[in-house]
Structure formats: structure tokens, C-alpha cells
Amino acid sequence: MERFGPPAMGGRRFGAGEIRLAVLSLLGDGPAHGYELMKQLGARCGGSYQPSAGVMYPTLQQLADEGLVEVDASSPSKRVFSLSREGRAAVREHADDIAAIWRRADSWSEWDVLEHPQAAEILGPAMRLAKASAKAVVKSLGDPEVIDAIREILDDARVQIERLHKRSRR
Q1: Domain ends where: 96, 113, 130?
Q2: What's the whole-model pTM score?
């Protein structure tokens, strides 16, 4: 089963076909070689994801095979990729999907704090709270009153914790 969610908790960053769309989107900003695209994708993901050559170059080759990118191989050391007319059309056609990918990527760096050793102190209790909340919703068969009550409890807890955080930074 594929898991989406916070990368720091083992969630997948990209769904099927999303790396392709992300690369097409980056090429919409201008031609680039594979290494540049790897760095740009890592930067767009807030540093929480760095694609490997084993991901980037097969993706670029697939996009070239599909006619979505053009390859300038005139430089002996670096092939430069750019969007073809079909690639530009694909970016327009999938604009909403691409926007959703970048919105999700913008939030990934927020989860890096979970990898800090001190975060381990509260991860167990936090996960038990999340599990109890999910179980209550499932057992209530999605009762809107139960969902609203749980959401209110969790929002209240978040607000109290954020107040502690602000107080400790003073």
C-alpha cells in the first residue's frame, strides 16, 4: 500500500507520474541539464527531497521518448533538456496537478522537525492521540458531530502547544 503523508514519517513525496510533471514544470522555467534539474527539484522541495541520478535521468529519457522534451546533445559533457511544443501543452493541461504537487512540496520542510532527536520525546503520545482520533471517527461511522468534536479537541491542543512554543522562545 502506498502511503502519502509527512516525508519524515515515511510518507511518499510523489505519486505515480508526479516526478514527470514536476520535471516538465521545472523545464517550463527554461532549458536545463539533468544535474541542474536535480538541484532545482531538491530546492523546490525545501531540501527534504533530493532526487538521485537514477530517478532523474530515466525520467528525462522517458519524457524525450514521449516527445515532451527535446534534447540538445551538442555539448559533449552535458545534454540540455527543454520543453517541446507537446511538453508545453502537457504543462498547461496538467496545471492543476502541478500546482497541487508544489503546494504539497512547500509543506515538506515543516516536517523535518520530526527527525530531531528531541522530537522522539513526544512522538509516541502524539501518534497515540492521532490513532485514538482516527479510531473514534471510524467507529462513529463518520458521524459529523463526532468529527467536529474531535477536530475541536485537536485544534484546542494545537493552540495550547503553540502558546507553549511562543512562550519558550521569549
Answers
A1: 113
A2: 0.61
